[in-house]
Amino acid sequence: MIRALLRLAFLLAALIAATPLLAGAFKASIERLPTDQGEPFELVLSLTGRDSLEPPNVTPLSKDFEILDRRKRSRMDTVAGQRVEVNEWVLTLVAKHPGRLTIPSLSVGGEASAPIDLTIAPGAAIAPPDDEPLSLAVDVQGTPPFFLQSEIPIVVRMFDRVGALEATAGQPEAEGASFTPDGGLKTYSRVFGRQRFRVVELRYIMRPQRTGTIQIPSLALKASIPTSPPGAQEQARTLGRPAMPWLGGGFNAGRKITVYSNPVEVEISPRPAGVTGWFLPARSVTLRESWSRPPAQAKVGGALVRTLRLEVKGASPGQLPPLAAPDVDGVRQYADEGKPEATSVDGGIGAVVETRVSVVPTRAGTVTLPAISVPWWNVTANRAEVATLPAVTLNVSASSDGSAPRVPTAPVAVPAPTPTADGTSGGWNVRDVLAVLAVTVLVVGTVFYSGRRRRPAEAERAPDPMHPGAVRPAGAVHGRTAGRPKLAPVDLDAAARALDAACRGNDAAAAHRAWLSFARAMGGTGAWTPRTPGMAQAVAELSQHLYAGGAGGWDGRALRKALATERRAAKARNGRKARGLQPLYPTSR
Question: Which helix (H) or strand (E) holds 376?
């Protein structure tokens, strides 16, 4: 009986451990959303925990997409604390037409993936600019208008139909704009007419620093191409002939050529007249909120967590404004620092930021949290709009014991709810039921086993009158306290160096990003504000220049000087704290 119960318990435990692997083992995802019809993108089909001899059935994709390339890769991942193998099929796709499209459900080995909706904007189809063996093209992604401090995707493509032996090209440059690489090299094949081309693609992010027309000059591509017909080396191997190094560029053979890309002009629009404050050009803006429990259940001294979520379509993470809850009499609010992230918004390119605010009432009665508004500029309708969360009224009840509330002086850490497989929180699932069954079986088995061991002992000896019912355990069981994972700290010195470098280069956008990292490093997991007036003033001037219509260029010398003063003040303060106690065993010299 005992052995049967133990076997059943072990079986249930194995099922519990395998539940994450059984649910959602095959899924589809997009690594980078396309901005328009002409941009290729990668669809990744992942199979977790096992492999399949047959590739996924991708026939349903042919309706709306063209498959440019396909490859398979494997990697190891951690799922529910276990190392498992993940096999991935990577498909390079391009949309056949613009509009709202759906990547249908695909299947492999009896499992199916969930469909994915995406929106494809109209755009020019990719085509080589000329009929040369090697060519280079520079394209601007996204849809105008473009504004100051926007992040504009730029793609550089090399079209090769002869099998270049080597090729190098410079990075785009333009007066009045900066360029940053965005991702690594991407290579795929595509047929134009009757010719198959190898396409090599590099992406950059252009950040305009002035309005007006910005011209990206032609880029030079220096390459070495084989002197034999394309594919001659491969054809020789196919026919079983010995390798001929003079075919296909062996022994560094080849003809040196230089080709130039087309120049590109980008029109940067000024801030619309009458717009003040933080400027957010976008295609749609949605502001949402959620509460850890209903506001009607507010009590004095009890914390409610309010999550503010801003979703912006057609903007980059650096353009999103900070979300802040206004101060209100009768409550104390502690907000964490939300980190904007690039993501898909309504099937298109966008960004999102979440801010969690701990709301702690300090008195009973009615307390109204004012409305929260985010002004933005609708680039589609060419007008100013406002996304607003309505005011929230809290009917705060007194604390249950009638004592004065203890209001925390630091943000209240509330763990985020764990989502289930269907994306919702709470409720019973298969894993919960199996866990309850396993615990029940173990408890019943333990009680039964303990009863059988206790009966012979009680029959042989009388109970000790000095210690009735005392039981001495056969062995000590030491439990482990599950610790909460710690957040990875930001390197303070690295953040300071990045901020100093951005100030030296007078790069306002890079300085703002570096400042956010520096603030996180100084504040740890909590909020932090500058301790010196100079730092506060320099940061305010930087934000004024970036998002409040500051005229002219930005000079980083003031912020760089304030940074040095701020760090000296922080070191002096830490030094005073460290000198509180003398060493227990001082050494004599």
Answer: strand 372-378
